[in-house]
Amino acid sequence: MSCLSxxxxxxxxxxxxxxxxxxxxxxxxxxxxxxxxxxNSDKTSRTEAFGRMREMKTTMRRKLTKYAxxxxxxxxxxxxxxxxxxxxxxxxxxxxxxxxxxxxYIVTILCAIIMVPVILLTAWIVWRYRDTKDNxxxxxxTWSHSALAETIWWGIPIIIIGIIGVFTVKxxxxxxxxxxxxxxxxxxxxxxxxxxxxxxxxxxEQDIATVNYLYIPEDRPIEFHLTSDAPMNSFWIPxxxxxxxxxxxxxxxxxxxxxEPGVYYGSGANFSxxxxxxxxxxxxxxSDEEFNQWVDKIKAVPDALTLEGYEKLAEPxxxxxxxxxxxPEGLFNKIVNKYVxxxxxxxxxx
Amino acid sequence: xxxxxESFSDFFVTGDxxxxxxxxxxxxxxxxxxxxxxxxxxxxxxxxEWLTTVDHKRVGIMYIIASILMLFRGGVxxxxxxxxxxxxxxEFLHAEHYNQIFTTHGVIMILFMAMPLMFGLFNIAVPLxxxxxxxxxxxxxxxxxxxxxxxxxxxxxxxxxxGSPDAxxxxxxxxxxxxxxxxxxxxxxxWGIQISGIGSLATGINFVVTILKMRAPGMKLxxxxxxxxxxxxxxxxxxxxxxxxxxTMALLFLDRFLxxxxxxxxxxxxxxxxxxxxxxxxxxxxxxxxxxxxxxFSEVVATFSRKKxxxxxxxxxxxxxxxxxxxxxxxxxxxxxxxxxxxxxxxAVSTMIIAIPTGVKIFNWLFTMxxxxxxxxxxxxxxxxxxxxxxxxxxxxxxLAVAPADFQxxxxxxxxxxxxxxxxxxxxxxxxxxxxxxxxxxxxxALNERLGKWAFWFWNIGFYVCFMPQxxxxxxxxxxxxxxxxxxxxxxxxNMISTVGGFLMGVGFLFQVWQIAHSxxxxxxxxxxxxxxxxxxxxxxxxPAPLYNFATDPQVKDVDDWWETKQKLARGEKLPPKPALxxxxxxxxxxxxxxxxxxxxxxxxxLVWDWLWMAIPSFIxxxxxxxxxxxxxxxxxYIPVDEIKRTEEAAAALKGATT
Lengths: 350, 659
Known about the structure:
Chain A is of the alpha+beta class.
């Protein structure tokens, strides 16, 4: 819309918002119609101007309903599809995570089948039966019971929950974390101990230990043994699969696998005190070959983890990543048994 | 004598400018209150009319005032956290401070905001709805309030004296044990909850008895208003759940105080036992707070749709089954403990089953509106907003209940978003609806609707802006209770949006405060006693209700008895003549609840600091109060007929002056 100087006129104004430029997001531009008034005394032109403004508003509203609604839906779809490629949980890199993502999608869809219509129904009822003078909708102030209707809405949730329940039970057994994964390859055992506020990973077969980072071979099941020598934490690598608590005096099993090489985020998911936010670790999945090279590299580092060294490591503090060429034999079992009084350690889920 | 205190800063928290600011402002506020009370000679009034009252209406008002203060405190905590998380690598709060803040935020919002607001509404509405003169045990009722109040104060004082607890709102051991948490913060946690918990349990007993024994003649159980039903099922849950909390806290106390080993890492202690026990209370607890909100929605939706509540018996059945089922779902809070597929499958399914009666309730509310005439007043707006919010919250709840999927949701912001959605969208929205709905009954004037609508929209829009991004943050691996995160994680933008939403809700709260202040100053007196054209008995008497509530016992015939009475009057039918006035038997005020609760506070404070010289005399004081009460025979009086007549005539005159 053009605008001559000295006239009352409407202009399309744009505001550019680039608050999020720092995070690499494109700036957003908001558009609105502004009214520039030059001559206050000219009443005719004012009325005219406002008439035109009203007209413009009506057309805008029409345009909005015509374009905005589909646009919004598209935007949502873009957002959601964007999410599914970026969000860790929805972008799994292993069989366990993939099954869990599928399950999440199944449940979401099953829920949405009932939720979306009910939300739309709510909107319709609220609008249809609003209290206005000329509302012609039926009004039945004493209608408060209908056996048929109530049977239907006891029935619908029962059916939906029944279906979700069946899926859940099936998957609960299929995805039991202690269950070995289907694979021709022998699983690699890694023992993970949560300390205040760091992760100690020991590789019993390779006799090496790391702090706050993991290397794993891709396409081979990893059998994590989990315990804690500090307040309970939780071992979680979202892109590989769900978490399991690390608890003192217990050894838990969690089977995961990475299907492709990559670097995955892992964290201690359960609050365990002051610097628990530092309990993050990177998981690097590589080919068998590279994994073996890495093992050799760690074998060659100068430091070994001794019992005294472990005691020191276990003291409450954050830690940088560390590597050790060996660790005391049976360290993990020692940690587990440390908290057991006169009885063998609990070995859950075995 | 001061035991573990070595310096001034062991007692008062020092060194943090924000806390120092709070200490100064608390001191100033206290001086101001004392000053105002003295200048206006209000000490006597405060003592006679409020501190020693046993009147359920006043106790209710005190509960509500306290809960709004706590909402402020909990809300400030929330905004501090959101500020810290708004940007990656933020250094606004350090780790320790952040841990304290999320701990107190959780405890305060559930135990010292939601619970007292709920008890406040119980007190305001239940006796009036069932046509009673007070609760069954008015003395115990006042005692419950003061125990809650001093318990809450004991908890709150920790952030300026001794240091706040920092082990999360449920204080999982061993983190909350002496070995990992040597400060007094955790002791404040135990005793704050323990003392107020006694009050909660007593309130539960009180309302169960009130509802079962004190209903007006003719009000069968299946003719009770739905809110009263919800209170009954909530209080039955309290009876079974709160003793578990008391025992759990007591065991944790023994661990810390006497060196027992119930939940320690060493010497055979089992922290997992605590986690089981605390959730055996904790899960019913969330239903304890949400079920009364369901009751409020039922009242509001019928009143403002001008239509009878749909499916009364379905509603009752649904509520009772929720109450029962809530005790069989606790382990869904720790599917990740690795209890095996059998246990997880059982608790997953039992959790999902709760969605069935909840879904039925939603349908019944919808069909109450269907073929009604909906008025968009503030209580109704909150109710309408609740429905889609709770549907989405319920849906994410079912998703969390799917045990193997929960391995990916657990401890993440997905969970945070879910429980805030059901607790804000269900509980807070519900109690706000109840507060707006019964406000005219409490004070004789309504709150300003225009400001109320501003508050409503700020809260609602703020809610979605704040919590929808958190679902996605959770799916992107962001775990709860992180005080900071790396720029590289890419969580920055969504967190920033979430923070903006949090502040929008904060603005909503400010609008509510403004709304209350504005309405106190500029209100129009409601002379009808029936401001909303209500349906239940509380609207049949003047607002605010006279001391004795009902001059004569109402005779109840129908579910919405007051509505039916109005219908009869409109049809020109004659009502049966009211029985003659008789003197009304009332309980006398008592100072014992207040004094005894101060002793409880002293006992708690002494045990927090391990000061037996303070704890033992306080304990003796508690016992002395109990004995004194046992020998108080002069605890009741009669309101003479003359006085009832005068009060009733004054109310009728007020009504007549305007109609």
